[in-house]
Specification:
Helices cover 63% and strands 13% of the residues. With 281 residues, the protein is of the alpha+beta class. The protein folds into 2 domains: 2-120, no CATH class; 130-279, Reverse transcriptase/Diguanylate cyclase domain (Alpha-Beta Plaits), CATH 3.30.70. It has a 5-stranded mixed beta sheet, with helices on both faces. A hairpin with a 4-residue loop joins strand 2 and strand 3 (201-207). Helix 7 (161-168) crosses helix 8 (170-185). The two termini are 34 Å apart.
């Protein structure tokens, strides 16, 4: 996984240089071994790498460069055909073949990337999906363990949301959920993560955030959410449990459980409020 992450993180300049060097070396080997030994399969390696990691344009460039290199190796190795047009025909065929392979690889890569994005995003709200949120939370816990920095986790539950679905229908319920997502996202940093854990439950991960800063952020978010509901005449309020971790939890499940129990303190005292807890400080 670390190798794949490394490869994904390289830029187009890196892959362009790698592709040119790879194809040049293949051309040298092709020339030295002569026309009796066919190494055409190996040209697919730089074509595939560039098509997958650097994009369609560089992939097609690799396809063209491979075709030209193969043609030059054949031509200079002493291979003679009955007619000079055969050189052109073979080179053109290789170019089309390599181009199709490059295009197919880039299409598969684009589809794979789109599928990954769909898995990471909740379809209804646009918030991070629960599965991807758990992955982000695991990363944050490990980061906090390493650098000894606090972070804050908030569990947000919509009060009376069921009545919205019952009275106004699920389409309005979805509008409420999207409005909640948009309101929260407008108040947080790019480094923060908002996830939808369930039907009317959201989670907010705030890296590098101590208790004092968490209170400022959460209070602003809570006020914004309440105002958004009032503006649309939606009788929904918010119970929020906030936990600041100076000592990271053992797992994401433990983190969620602690924030959930903190949120239920609000539920038992009339709903529509925020409860704070500090862990390990």
């Amino acid at each position: 996984m670390d190798l794949l992450a490394f490869l994904e993180g390289r830029g187009k300049l890196f892959w362009g240089v790698v592709g040119i060097v790879f194809i040049f070396l293949l051309g040298v080997v092709d020339y030295v071994t002569g026309f009796e030994i066919n190494i055409s399969f190996f040209y697919l390696i730089p074509i595939g790498l560039l098509s997958w990691y650097a994009g369609r344009q560089l992939g097609l460039f690799a396809a063209a460069a491979s075709s030209i290199t193969w043609f030059m190796a054949d031509y200079t190795s002493g291979l003679l055909y009955s007619h000079p047009a055969i050189y052109v025909w073979n080179a053109s065929f290789r170019l089309v073949f390599f181009g199709v392979v490059s295009w197919l690889i880039s299409v598969v890569h684009d589809v794979n990337k789109e599928n990954q994005e769909l898995v990471r995003v909740d379809f209804v709200t646009g918030a991070v999906s629960v599965r991807y949120f758990y992955e982000l939370a695991k990363i944050e816990i490990k980061r906090a363990e390493r650098y000894k920095r606090p972070f804050t986790f908030a569990y947000i539950d919509l009060d009376n949301f069921k009545s919205i679905n019952d009275r106004l229908g699920h389409s309005i319920g979805d509008r409420v959920l999207r409005a909640v997502t948009e309101s929260i996202q407008s108040q947080i940093r790019p480094t923060d993560s908002l996830g939808r854990l369930g039907g009317d439950e959201f989670a907010l991960l705030l890296p590098e955030t101590d208790e004092a800063h968490a209170k400022n952020v959460i209070q602003r978010i809570h006020s914004s959410l309440v105002n958004e509901m009032l503006k649309n005449s939606w009788m929904v309020t918010f119970s929020v449990g906030v936990v600041t971790f100076c000592e990271p939890p053992a797992s994401v499940d433990e983190m969620v459980k602690l924030a959930d129990s903190t949120m239920y303190k609000v539920k038992t005292h009339g709903k529509n409020g925020v409860s704070y807890h500090v862990h390990g400080c």
